[in-house]
Design goal:
The protein is of the alpha+beta class. It is built from twelve helices and eleven strands. The longest helix is centred in the first third of the chain and has 42 residues.
């Protein structure tokens, strides 16, 4: 009947609605499940892949990274050699004469910086001004130059980068000090092996013929040593130290005012004799200097040597002034070559524990 058909139709539509509600509920469940998973991922901490540590600055990590790579040949090793006995007959070993690769690179950079600094006439004039009066400020140096204060600062920075000028703050003032050690090292590299003594003889002959004379009859040298004042003082006054860096001579003195000072060779012969003029440990030592190893120098009157030590941030600034020479002295040329080597050997002994190799027989006793 129509009524039954209507009831049956309504019943059918009801079942179809129930099926649709069931399908919709399944869809809604799947939808909310996906939303929940997205929220879980969003709230979880991010996991980033581990990046390999930088090995550029650490040689040990670089070797470890190299060794961990599969099917990779081992790195070329660098070996410092001092004699033929250090050769290994290994094709994978590179050699450097007495210095490591980093030291060779640093040495090349130092040489380039020194030559660059000395190439400009204005910078050479600044070095001459500091030689005349060491420890000048920027304002005092401006009086001796014709360029601006900004240009002067740039020139001083280049000299400081090359190690030719050392700065130190004293209160609010910045003092500039001359450091001749880089020039001495370059001289050792480029002049010593090409006949230093022949060049010195020619230079002395030139000064004699042209009537030239030294502006000041003295020798001054200054360096910084990475050691305490007490350690440097002990190295200057202790025979166990001087025998290692001072041309194998043993210093002998009680280091009291008026006491005798003798530098003796291992044979017992006295190379230099003197007397303590002033002593203030560990700040200052003044002694007379009479050379006995050379007949011409032996005939001269004694000169004077002043050692001044000053603490600079844990390091020691050692300044040596050798003066009070008689007219037409023959000692000055000798000590001008001897003192730089002695101070360099002393610096090496205190900083590395090993003094420099002794110079050749011609240079022996030049100080």
């Amino acid at each position: 009947t129509p009524l039954e058909n209507e009831k049956s139709g309504n019943a059918g539509s009801g079942s179809s609605h129930r099926e649709n509600r069931g399908n919709n509920s399944g869809f809604n469940n799947e939808f909310f499940n996906r939303i929940g998973r997205l929220q879980t991922v969003a709230n979880s901490p991010k996991q980033t892949p581990e990046r390999p540590l930088s090995t550029r600055a650490d040689p040990q990590r670089r070797l470890q990274a190299w060794a961990s790579q599969p099917k990779c040949s081992p790195p070329i090793l660098l070996r410092s050699i001092h004699s033929l006995s250090d050769l290994t007959c290994n094709q994978k070993v590179a050699y450097s004469v007495g210095r490591s690769l980093c030291e060779c690179t640093r040495w090349d950079q130092v040489v380039e910086a020194v030559f660059k600094a000395l190439a400009d006439n204005s910078r050479r004039a600044l070095l001459d001004a500091l030689f005349e009066e060491d420890g000048q400020t920027l304002q005092s140096l401006c009086r001796n130059v014709e360029f601006s204060r900004q240009a002067l600062s740039k020139h001083l920075q280049i000299l400081e980068d090359a190690g030719l000028v050392i700065t130190e703050f004293q209160g609010r003032e910045k003092k500039h000090y001359l450091n001749p050690l880089p020039i001495h090292e370059v001289t050792e590299r480029w002049i010593a092996k090409y006949g230093r003594h022949q060049l010195m003889a020619v230079s002395a002959l030139k000064r004699a013929l042209e009537g030239g004379a030294m502006k000041e009859n003295q020798f001054a040298y200054e360096t910084y040593i990475n050691a305490s004042q007490q350690e440097v003082w002990q190295a200057l006054t202790n025979a166990e130290f001087t025998s290692q860096y001072f041309h194998a001579t043993h210093v002998d003195s009680t280091w009291e005012a008026g006491a005798a000072v003798n530098y003796r060779y291992a044979s017992g012969d006295v190379a230099v004799e003197g007397e303590v003029i002033e002593v203030d440990p560990p700040n200052k030592l003044v002694i007379s200097w009479h050379v006995l190893y050379d007949e011409a120098a032996k005939a001269e009157q004694p000169s004077r040597v002043t050692f001044t030590l000053q603490d600079v941030n844990g390091q020691t600034r050692l300044r040596i002034v050798h003066d009070d020479f008689p007219a037409n002295t023959v000692v000055l040329d000798g000590i001008s070559e001897g003192w730089p080597w002695i101070v360099a050997s002393l610096k090496s002994l205190l900083e590395t524990g090993v003094a420099l190799p002794p110079p050749d027989a011609q240079q022996k006793g030049n100080a």
